[in-house]
């Protein structure tokens, strides 16, 4: 038996806003009978772009029904722009969490919302584009990449839990592994740009270290009447000499390791080791 | 989830059954009084050994066979693995297994694993079923080959209750000198079995499906069949299964087999009538509902019914409010994303497979309970259809 929260049970047993709005401002129709869940979301949006009413019809399990119900509650009263920012995590959170195998129900909610907003704005829903990866459940690479990035997915199993992709015949498993790598690499790229770990020449290293000493470290040390000088750079070993008040300070070792080394590692190169000249 | 009525209406007996009070009584002394090890030399342990012998006779009587052909195991799954792996080890040159597309995971997954870990050194033929769940014996005949090490076909299907012609299939295998195994976990106690007259070499059964406790099973191995143990260790079970006996459960299973023989008729008359009343009542009162599985070629206790355009888990959780227990072939109940492999093999459309509910009765069910379920189900299905985007299109 699934461990459903009280919120899920409440929204499943007594769902809010069941039905269909007549002449809706926007309609989102996602999922299918074959997939085992489907959601039709209809919105009524006023002239100020405010969602004044939202109704749903859902075919699916308890968490699919609860996700749909709570979604309508979340977005009612929101502006369309605000609603466009609602994520599947917001839906799951509003339900007090969902079992991990059921996360795809919250994703279905977000997709229906996106489709309804796109319909209102006269656009094509973004996720409908892209290359079809999972034929069993009709999931595209864009949907998968987005789930990997937004929900920080780290395994093929998690992709299946969130998007259903790979939950059928399993033929797309290799492609999912590629997308997982692709999606998660893009996240890892960000700190990589900062730290520039790739091959730096000694000259580049010295230049960068001098720059950080000048802009970051010296101003701080000078406040306490001290200073610092770069003595040598040999591979990852950086030799410095503390001057002024720092020289006689008993905490000089702490200054070097906890401050100077930390700063240089953060801003120049992760592997640097900073030592004081004897 | 909170239930509206205190009493549990248990219609999930193909999942597991209640331990019969008589069985529990028979087991009790073996926990704190007669706790000796049946392998011990002393009289205290020896007495327990005598009780196990009696249980073995009770099981043999129900199956129409000899006590020495009965090996106690821990569950149906262990019995299935033991039988199939024993056959493969006995005939290492034979690399073909015949089974069906509707087997229980105990056999299905084992075959898949055998293909996978051996890099498809083993070839598995999975016999098709038709829309009523029945096999084609001509396809079976054609599949039997010199290379076939063993055939494994369930006696009755756990989801639909459909009964397979294992007597005839075993005869066909015997003519070709091929070993025949049947997973009879759902059939024992519900259909008469007389192994002494049949060509079946291995049969698996599970205690907790016939009112014995969980954690005990049986593998029948026909006298004269080559046997390689699965669990090695001590000399227990005539060297066929190492490990100290699960004494109290074995005693319980013996008593349960005795009771099953006594209640077989009730099962096939009274329980069947209850099942039929339930099934016909549901099909009549709920539109767009249908039976899955052959109408007559079926266990007397099982009704598998699809309610189109609604999803099984949602149905079960609404039933749960009334403390009505059943199962579903829907994907959402299992954690997988695909509906039951049994219903898919039968070609049941997705509209129906996702909304399938299995009711499985036992001798402990009453007519009041059936009436209660018949009273509650129409509103449950109607309320879910109310919110289904497909129902309207259909209507």
Automatic annotation (TrEMBL), chain A:
| Boundaries of every NIF system FeS cluster assembly NifU N-terminal domain copy | 3-122
Per the database record, which ranges form the NIF system FeS cluster assembly NifU C-terminal domain? 209-274
Pfam families in the cross-refs: Fer2_BFD, NifU, NifU_N
Q: Which UniProt keywords apply?
A: 2Fe-2S, Iron, Iron-sulfur, Metal-binding, Nitrogen fixation
Name of this chain's protein = Nitrogen fixation protein NifU
| Function (record text) | May be involved in the formation or repair of [Fe-S] clusters present in iron-sulfur proteins.
> What residues bind [2Fe-2S] cluster, as annotated?
134, 136, 169, 172
Which positions bind Fe cation? 35, 61, 105
- Output the SUPFAM superfamilies linked to this UniProt entry: Fe-S cluster assembly (FSCA) domain-like, SufE/NifU
Tell me if Metal-binding is a UniProt keyword of this record: yes
Q: Where are the transmembrane segments?
A: none
Q: Which organism is it from?
A: Desulforhopalus singaporensis
Q: Which residues form the signal peptide?
A: none
The record's section on Gene3D superfamilies has: 3.90.1010.10, BFD-like [2Fe-2S]-binding domain, Fe-S cluster assembly (FSCA)
MF (Gene Ontology): 2 iron, 2 sulfur cluster binding; iron ion binding
At the top level of its lineage, which domain of life is listed?
A: Bacteria
From TrEMBL, chain B:
Q: Which domain of life is it from?
A: Bacteria
A single Pfam family it belongs to is Aminotran_5
* Required cofactor(s): pyridoxal 5'-phosphate
All copies of domain Aminotransferase class V, residue ranges: 9-371
Q: Which reaction does it catalyse?
A: (sulfur carrier)-H + L-cysteine = (sulfur carrier)-SH + L-alanine
* Gene Ontology terms describing biological process: amino acid metabolic process
Which GO molecular function entries does the Swiss-Prot or TrEMBL record give? Answer: cysteine desulfurase activity; iron-sulfur cluster binding; metal ion binding; pyridoxal phosphate binding
Keywords from the named record = Iron, Iron-sulfur, Metal-binding, Pyridoxal phosphate, Transferase
Oligomeric form and interacting partners: Homodimer.
Alphabetized NCBIfam families for the sequence: FeS_nifS (TIGR03402)
**Similarity field:** Belongs to the class-V pyridoxal-phosphate-dependent aminotransferase family. NifS/IscS subfamily.
Q: Which PANTHER family match?
A: CYSTEINE DESULFURASE (PTHR11601:SF34), CYSTEINE DESULFURYLASE FAMILY MEMBER (PTHR11601)
Query: What does this protein do, in the record's words?
Result: Catalyzes the removal of elemental sulfur atoms from cysteine to produce alanine. Seems to participate in the biosynthesis of the nitrogenase metalloclusters by providing the inorganic sulfur required for the Fe-S core formation.
> Which protein, by its recorded name, is this?
Cysteine desulfurase
Q: Which organism is it from?
A: Desulforhopalus singaporensis
Starting at the broadest rank, the lineage of the source organism is: Bacteria, Pseudomonadati, Thermodesulfobacteriota, Desulfobulbia, Desulfobulbales
């Amino acid at each position: 038996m699934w461990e459903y929260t009280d919120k899920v049970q409440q929204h499943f047993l007594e769902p809010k806003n069941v039905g269909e709005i007549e002449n809706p401002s926007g309609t989102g129709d996602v999922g299918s009978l074959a997939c085992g869940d489907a959601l039709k979301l209809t919105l009524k949006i006023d002239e100020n772009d405010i969602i004044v009413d939202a109704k749903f019809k859902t075919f699916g399990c308890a968490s699919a029904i609860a996700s749909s119900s709570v979604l309508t509650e979340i977005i009612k009263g929101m502006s369309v722009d605000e609603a466009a920012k609602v994520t599947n995590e917001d839906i799951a959170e509003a339900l007090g969490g969902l079992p991990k195998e059921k996360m795809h129900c919250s994703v279905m909610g977000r997709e229906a919302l996106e489709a309804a907003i796109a319909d209102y704005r006269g656009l094509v829903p973004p996720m409908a584009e892209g290359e079809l990866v999972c034929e069993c459940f009709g999931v595209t690479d864009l949907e998968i990449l987005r789930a990997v990035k937004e929900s920080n997915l780290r395994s093929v199993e998690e992709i299946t839990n969130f998007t259903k992709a790979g939950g059928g015949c399993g033929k797309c498993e290799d492609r999912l592994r590629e997308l997982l790598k692709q999606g998660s690499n893009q996240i890892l790229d960000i700190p990589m740009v900062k730290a520039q770990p790739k091959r730096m020449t000694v000259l580049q290293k010295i230049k960068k270290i001098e720059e950080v000493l000048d802009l970051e470290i010296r101003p701080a040390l000078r406040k306490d009447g001290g200073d610092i000088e770069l003595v040598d750079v040999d591979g990852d070993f950086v030799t410095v000499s503390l001057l002024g008040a720092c020289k006689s300070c008993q905490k000089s070792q702490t200054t070097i390791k906890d401050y100077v080394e930390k700063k240089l590692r953060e801003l120049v190169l992760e592997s640097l080791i900073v030592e004081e000249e004897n | 989830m909170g239930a509206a009525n205190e009493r549990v209406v248990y219609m999930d007996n193909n999942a597991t059954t209640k331990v019969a009070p008589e069985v529990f009584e028979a087991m009790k002394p073996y926990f704190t009084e007669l706790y000796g090890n049946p392998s011990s030399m002393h009289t205290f342990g020896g007495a327990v050994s005598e009780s196990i012998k009696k249980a073995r006779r009770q099981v043999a009587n129900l199956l129409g066979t000899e006590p020495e052909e009965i090996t106690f195991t821990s569950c149906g799954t262990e019995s299935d693995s033991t039988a199939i792996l024993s056959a493969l080890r006995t005939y290492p040159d034979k690399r073909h297994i015949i089974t069906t597309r509707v087997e229980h995971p105990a056999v299905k997954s084992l075959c898949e694993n055998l293909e996978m870990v051996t890099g498809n050194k083993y070839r598995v033929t999975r016999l098709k079923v038709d829309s009523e769940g029945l096999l084609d014996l001509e396809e079976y005949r054609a599949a039997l080959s010199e290379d076939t090490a063993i055939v494994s076909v369930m006696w009755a299907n756990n989801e639909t209750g459909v009964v397979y012609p294992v007597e005839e299939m075993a005869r066909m295998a015997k003519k070709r000198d091929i070993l025949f195994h049947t997973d009879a976990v759902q059939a024992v106690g519900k259909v008469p079995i007389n192994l002494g007259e049949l060509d079946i070499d291995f049969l698996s059964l599970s205690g907790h499906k016939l009112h014995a406790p969980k954690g005990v099973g049986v593998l029948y191995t026909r006298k004269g069949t080559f046997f390689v143990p699965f669990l090695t260790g001590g000399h227990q079970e005539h060297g066929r299964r190492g490990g100290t006996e699960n004494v109290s459960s074995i005693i319980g299973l013996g008593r349960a087999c005795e009771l099953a023989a006594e209640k077989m008729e009730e099962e096939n008359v009274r329980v069947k009538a209850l099942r039929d009343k339930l099934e016909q009542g549901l099909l009549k009162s709920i539109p767009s509902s249908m039976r899955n599985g052959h109408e007559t070629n079926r266990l007397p206790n099982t009704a598998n019914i699809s309610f189109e355009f609604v999803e099984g888990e949602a149905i079960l959780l609404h039933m749960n409010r009334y403390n009505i227990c059943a199962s579903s072939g829907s994907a959402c109940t299992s954690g997988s994303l695909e509906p039951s492999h049994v219903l898919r093999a039968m070609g049941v459309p997705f509209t129906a497979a996702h909304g399938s509910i299995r009711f499985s009765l036992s001798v402990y069910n009453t007519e009041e309970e059936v009436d209660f379920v018949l009273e509650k189900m129409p509103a449950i299905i109607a309320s879910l259809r109310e919110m289904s985007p497909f129902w309207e299109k259909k209507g």
